[in-house]
Design the sequence.
């Protein structure tokens, strides 16, 4: 989609699409948390996961390179917060390593894409194809 055409919307960004997939996976996983975690750790996982694509979208439409970079860095921070919540969920036996491992790997992949996009914006002021 975005690799062959100009990027006109945050929806064209690969990193946004990946972040949306991550949020979906987090929602599915947290739905399996025990009921007493529904307003605790599950909510924190979902909130952090949703914050990633939301920050990417907001930054894209900001119209200002520095603010765009700042929001991409916020998305990166949300990823780290999400990773922390997932690791804690595993440690307190709310979920298993089998459930968290692929999501944590996805977080790492998205973090790398965000880092590339941030560097690109800082150097050139463009979003390239990320």
Sequence:
């Amino acid at each position: 989609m975005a690799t062959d055409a100009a990027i006109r919307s945050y929806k064209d960004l690969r990193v946004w699409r990946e972040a949306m997939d991550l949020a979906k996976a987090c929602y599915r996983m947290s739905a399996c948390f025990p009921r007493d975690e529904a307003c605790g750790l599950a909510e924190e996982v979902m909130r952090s996961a949703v914050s990633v694509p939301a920050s990417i979208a907001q930054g894209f439409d900001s119209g200002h390179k520095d603010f765009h970079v700042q929001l991409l860095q916020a998305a990166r921070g949300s990823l780290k917060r999400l990773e922390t919540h997932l690791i804690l969920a595993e440690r307190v036996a709310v979920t298993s390593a089998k459930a968290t491992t692929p999501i944590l790997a996805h977080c790492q992949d998205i973090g790398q894409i965000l880092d590339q996009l941030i560097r690109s914006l800082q150097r050139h002021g463009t979003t390239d194809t990320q």
Observations:
- The chain has four helices and no strands.
- Helices lie at 14-30, 41-60, 65-91, 97-124.
